[in-house]
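Customer escalation, tier 2.

The customer says the design service returned an amino acid string that "doesn't look like it belongs to this structure." They asked us to rerun it and document both sides in this ticket. The original structure tokens are below, unchanged.
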């Protein structure tokens, strides 16, 4: 079987002291699942690893179960391969090279997103902030940063993401994970 490189995106860990997952322990946990080349990026739950080619949901489920067993709490996990991460970077509808990385964010979803979910958002009311949907992602341009974004608050409402796992990363992390997963 061929070996592929993946990124695991953990949702909601190490935020305000909740769901604490030390990166050294996460690396050991991923290695214990039989994966190789394990590296982490930042403290916010990003792990890169190699595995024999398998489907992303199976890899995510294995990691979710291992985290719950080891740490005693549930964490949503998305796993994406390099080709997908590269496609997300390449498809960015905003001029990423002209923006500060803190102005651009990507929310990864566990599955496809029907644009009608977001049809109730009054986009002109939030300008100059903007969002665009892509392949299982939402791109958010927030010129004053995510912390001051009123549009980000609206886009995170549970009714818009119901039934999906959603986790966001800033543009620096998006591009770094793409780089780290290159074979």
């Amino acid at each position: 079987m061929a070996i592929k490189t993946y990124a695991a995106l953990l949702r909601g860990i190490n935020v305000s002291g909740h769901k604490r997952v030390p990166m050294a322990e996460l690396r050991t946990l991923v290695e214990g699942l039989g994966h190789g080349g394990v590296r982490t990026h930042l403290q916010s739950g990003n792990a890169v690893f190699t595995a024999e080619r398998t489907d992303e949901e199976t890899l995510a489920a294995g990691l979710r179960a291992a985290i719950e067993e080891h740490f005693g709490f549930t964490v949503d996990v998305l796993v994406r391969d390099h080709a997908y991460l590269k496609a997300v970077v390449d498809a960015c509808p905003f001029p990423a090279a002209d923006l500060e990385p803190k102005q651009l964010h990507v929310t990864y979803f566990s599955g496809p997103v029907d644009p009608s979910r977001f049809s109730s958002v009054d986009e002109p009311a939030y300008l100059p902030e903007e969002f665009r949907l892509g392949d299982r992602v939402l791109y958010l341009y927030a010129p004053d940063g995510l912390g001051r974004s009123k549009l980000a608050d609206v886009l995170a409402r549970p009714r818009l993401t119901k039934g999906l796992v959603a986790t966001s990363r800033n543009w620096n992390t998006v591009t770094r994970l793409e780089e780290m997963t290159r074979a």
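Tier 2 assessment: The sequence is consistent with the input. The first strand starts at residue 3 and ends at 10. The chain has a mean pLDDT of 93. Sent an explanation to the customer and offered a walkthrough call.
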